[in-house]
Write a structure and sequence with these properties.
single chain, about 475 residues, alpha+beta, Thrombin, subunit H, Pdz3 Domain, 3 domains, seven-stranded antiparallel sheet, six-stranded antiparallel barrel, 11 helices, 27 strands, elongated
Length: about 475
Amino acid sequence: MIFKALFAFAVLFSGGARAQTLVSFADAVKKALPSVVSVSATKITAEPPEMMLALRGSPFENFFKDSYRDGGFDAPKSILLGSGVVYDAVGHIVTSAHVVEGMDEVTVTLNDGTALTGKVAGRDPKTDLAVVKIDKAGLPPVVFGDSDAAEIGEPVMAVGNPFGLGNTVTAGIVSARSRDIQVGPYDDFIQTDAAINRGNSGGPLFNAAGEMIGVNTAIFSPSGGSVGIAFAVPSKMVKPVADALIKDGTVKRGRLGLKIQTVTPEIARSLKMPETAGALVAGVDLTSRAARSDIKAGDVVIRFDGRPVPDMRALPRMAAQAAVGKTIPVTVWRSGKEVNLSLTISEMTDKVPVSALPQNGRTDDLKTKTLTLLGITVAEPTPEARRKYNLPKGGAGLVVTGVKAGSDAAQKGLRAGDVLVELDKKTLASMAAADAWEREAAELGLESAFVLIDRNGERFFAVVKFVPVP
C-alpha cells in the first residue's frame, strides 16, 4: 500500500499523465487583460465613508487615499469599487448593476491606467448587470465564450479590481452550474472557487482560452473575504441584456401571466406524472393574455416552445427571453396525459406589492365545519368572515378557521385566514361541495388531497395527507 502511494507521487512529479493536465493561463491572460477595466462609482455624502474613518492614522491611510482618489479621507463622498469589461469598440462597458446604483459619478480606468468619466447607459437589477458608456473608441472588446459549454471541473480565471489594487488574475474551476442563490427571478449562476473579493463585481470570468463565460457578481462569505464560493452571471444572459440596455436603456421581458410553483415528488405522484419536472400552474392572471388561452390552474407546463421545462425556475427564464407578443406552443400535463396549447407572451411589468397577510380572528360566531380527513375547520366566506380575516370581496372557496396541531395540513403551513378554493380539482363553492368531496374521498379510499389554496390573493397547490384514523 505504501509502495503504491509513493509510486503515484513519483508519477505526478515526473511528467506523468496527470502532470500533463496542468493549465497555464499566461496566453489567455495576454489575450483577455486589455479588455478588462476598473470601475469606481462615487456618491456625494455628508460624512466620509465609514471604512476611511476607521483607517485614519493607520499605515494604510496613504494607500487608500491614492486608491480612492478625489481627496481621500477628507472628501464627502461614498465610493464603491468594481470591475468591468469592454463590450464593444465604441466604448460600452459591462459591469454589475449594484456597483453603479444611485451613484453620482462613474470613473472607468483602462488597463493602461487611463481614467475616463463614464455615464450609466442602463441598469438591470434583475440580473445585476449594467452598461456604462465612455468616450473612447477602438478598445478591444472581450471575446465571448459559450457558458452552456462550461463543464463542472473546468479551469477558469477571474480578472478584476479587488480592494482597488487594479487588474488582478485569480484561477480556479467551475464548481457548479445553474445555481439559484435567491437574489433575483432569473438566477442561473456559474459557481466558481476562483478567488473573488470586494471590487471584483462586474469583472469577467474567463475559460482557459481567454473567452468570457460569465460576469462575476456575488460571493458567499461570512467574513467578507473570499472563501472559495463565488457566482457569475453566465455569458448567454449577458449579451441580450447588454444589447437591450445599449438600445433602450432598459430590458423588456416577456411574461406568461401564470402563477407557478414547484412540482414536488409528492405532487408528481398525485398527478400521476411519469417524472418530477415542469412548472405547476397555481393560477392565471386575468389581466394577461394567458387568460384568453386554454391553460388552467392545475396544469403542469412540461415543454415551452419545444424545449423541456426541467423545473419551475426554468420557465420564467424561458418566458423572459421570448419576444413580447409572440405566440408560443406549450405542452402541459393535464388529467394524466399531455395536452398541446399555445400562449401569447405579455410584457413584464414591476409587480405591485401585496398587502399584509390576513390576521387570525375569532370564530365562535361563525358557522363552521370540520373537514375531518384534513384536520381543518372551515367557514363560508360571509361578509363577517371576510372582515375577521381581512379577505377581499368575491372569489370562491371556504375560509380556514382552524388547523389541527400535528396534522399534515399544519406541517404544510396552512393557517386560519387561508381560503380553500379546490379539493382534488373540485371547486368548493359551498359547504355542500365539501360534504360531497369528503364522501367521495372516503368511498375511493384516498389518503391525501390535492388542495388549491388562496392566501392574500396568491394561489398555490399542496398535497395534504389525511389525518390518521385513531
